[in-house]
Amino acid sequence: MKRILFFAVCVMFGMASYAQSNADEVALLQSVYGMEKKQIVADHMKITDPEKTAFWQIYDEYEIARKAIGTKRANGITDYAKNYTTMTDDKANELVNKSLALNTEFLKLQKSTYKKMSKAITPLRAAQFFQLEMFLENMVRLELASEIPFIGEFDVKKAK
Hints:
The protein is mainly α.
């Protein structure tokens, strides 16, 4: 129950806005690695002088678009939390379809960015970035998923 309450508070206050969503992600990465994402990327990639301008320009464009998708994802989590106890078939369908659409939007962003990076800094270096990016994305998703109750979780706990 404490976990559900914690989740609801986090969703309601922590993820409702773009700035806070980004701040939560930064805090998560800092708690694990002790640094911000851009610093993690810089340390991992070891960007050379000839790559710097092109890489960071593409990276910054990617991050703006990725954060916008993250804000939509956070809004979906908030919507889920608001409707959790009164979930209907229609609302569940709406939430799943929005989530799938966001996953598609994110995949398109990754493909587009990979294509740009491959041309700018070589496919191998672009793959190096996306391997790190997918790891960090999965880490954030895992943390979120561990705090979001499954539909019907309250009913399962009451039955025990």
